[in-house]
Amino acid sequence: MPLTDEQLSTEVTDLIVEASSGVVTGEQVVDESANLLEKGFSSLSFLQLIDALETRYGVYIDLEADTRFLGRVSTIVKFLREQNVG
Amino acid sequence: MTGLLFPAITERMAAHPDSVIGNLADRTTTTQVLEVSGSKRRRLEQSLFRERSRVAIIRRNSPSYVSDLLAVLGAGHVPFLMDPSLGPGELARLFADCGVDAVLHDDTERFPANRRTIDFLGSWLSVITDPASAAPELHPDTELCRLTSGSTRTPGCVEFSGSAVLAAAEGWRAASGFGPADRVLCFAGLYNGLGFNAALIPGLLAGASLYLPAGLPAASNIRRHMAEIDPTVLVAFPAAYDGLAASDRSTLDRHSLRLALSSAARLSARTSTVLTAHGTRIADYYGIAETGPLTFNPDPRPGGGQGYPLPGVSLRFEGDEPDSGRLLARSRSMGTRYLNYPGMLEERITESGHYRTNDQGSLTADGELRLGERLDDSLSIGGKKVSMSEVEELLTSHPDVTACAVAVVAPPAGGHPFLGAVLVGPRVPDVVEIRRYCLTRAAPFKVPERVVVVPEIPRNGAGKVQRAAVAKLLLASLEQPKGRAHAADR
């Protein structure tokens, strides 16, 4: 059963909260008026999120390219859809 | 006048014309890098007319970093290697305090309009059109400047002579055995001591191939580079090794690594043990910006110390015990002075020529250094140092923050330690506004990830901040991640 956008967003939100060790809350994550860096994501949190996304969804994130899509749930979900996830 | 560094480096590079200086997308040879640096040097000569112009290099790792550096040195100018994560406010202050004339960079969005920016063959050259009028003079022997953090209130600019830089690199090359057959994969920024003194300059002098990725050292990214490059030397901060040890390790058994280098923060014994089981032994060495690398152990073991003094290094201890206490270090690679903090480095040099560090340490019976606690209020965030007072000054510069206290907190359910702050003020804004304010002024690693508003800062009877109580307040504010909650339930 393919995941809906809402289900995929929920999964990604959980991964983000976990990558930040709970520093960024789920409530903060879904408010997209700011990006994750502005909400409290550190470079170590981004490292963990990248590994979590690649492991969970089997995707390849090119870190030598533009990675600004990692700043918001909606753009991460868009990236995952483009990689045929869900 | 090109000093000592430029001829020493370029002659050795020319002797190894086919060594690679590249990344996954771009495997240029030493010969090509030398040709590009020559073209860049001619452009610099057409753009900068002052002798010994001060040129900041602020960019991520890439082959262009090397040709930029050589172009500046070859034109007789002085490169200032700066952390690209520094905030606009920090850079503006450094440019003014150090009299920076131009910036070589890879990010046109970050550098404001009072600069004339031209294409620089893979980089951008921004010439500062309103340079500081009363910049301090450079020491006559200075050929290169690098920044230190944590030793001075704001980033200190350390001046180095060419002979100091070469001494650091030659000492490291001899101890680590860098040679033309090595393929060095460096995830540490080249502006940083780990990247500069333990990879870039010794690698160039040894004729090794250098691979310089710009991307974050996520475990998957390291594995990808290891699979494609098959490096013999890996250079990265402890957090990168932590990620590697925690990830899928099945791909780690097939490699040619003979050396993995780490520094700047304590390496976890667990990480070291896990990676050793997969044939990757991590040499955790000790060095600081002001002195260069000080120790090395070619035969590291999990849970071991930071290695043995490098040739030419003298370690002493201040305190009651002969082999433990505050570390005093003397090397042939010492910085000369802080350009923007006159007299402060000289004040820390003892009569014997040793630099008084802010680290405690001791020597084991066989002479290996074991680092102890820091003696100042500096924090280590992902391998970068910052003083608590610098972070607290940054926060209290916000008009709505009247008092604050910071702490580094380790979540009890696992995950990485984070920098947090408790804030006092009548109208303290939310975390996003606080971070936006701070991020325009300082590097992200200096900006607390979590902030909590409190009625007053926890202090003891003597008025001293109770850091344990600050940490407790920050921990209580965390959201329990679902994955970890489930793991704990099991």
Automatic annotation (TrEMBL), chain A:
Pfam families: PP-binding
Name the UniProt record assigns to this protein: Phosphopantetheine binding protein
Domain Carrier: 28-64
Protein's organism: Kibdelosporangium persicum
InterPro entries named among the record's database cross-references: ACP-like_sf, PP-bd_ACP
Taxonomy, superkingdom: Bacteria
UniProtKB/TrEMBL annotation, chain B:
InterPro entries linked to this entry: AMP-bd_C, AMP-bd_C_sf, AMP-dep_synth/lig_dom, ANL_N_sf
Database matches in PANTHER family: ACYL-COA SYNTHETASE (PTHR43201), ACYL-COA SYNTHETASE FAMILY MEMBER 3 (PTHR43201:SF8)
Domain called AMP-dependent synthetase/ligase: residue spans: 44-338
Gene3D superfamilies: 3.30.300.30, N-terminal domain of ligase-like
Pfam families: AMP-binding, AMP-binding_C
Keywords: Ligase
Membrane spanning residue stretches: none
Lineage, uppermost ranks: Bacteria, Bacillati, Actinomycetota, Actinomycetes, Pseudonocardiales
Family: Belongs to the ATP-dependent AMP-binding enzyme family.
GO molecular function, one term: ligase activity
AMP-binding enzyme C-terminal domain span: 390-464
UniProt-recorded name of the protein: AMP-dependent synthetase and ligase
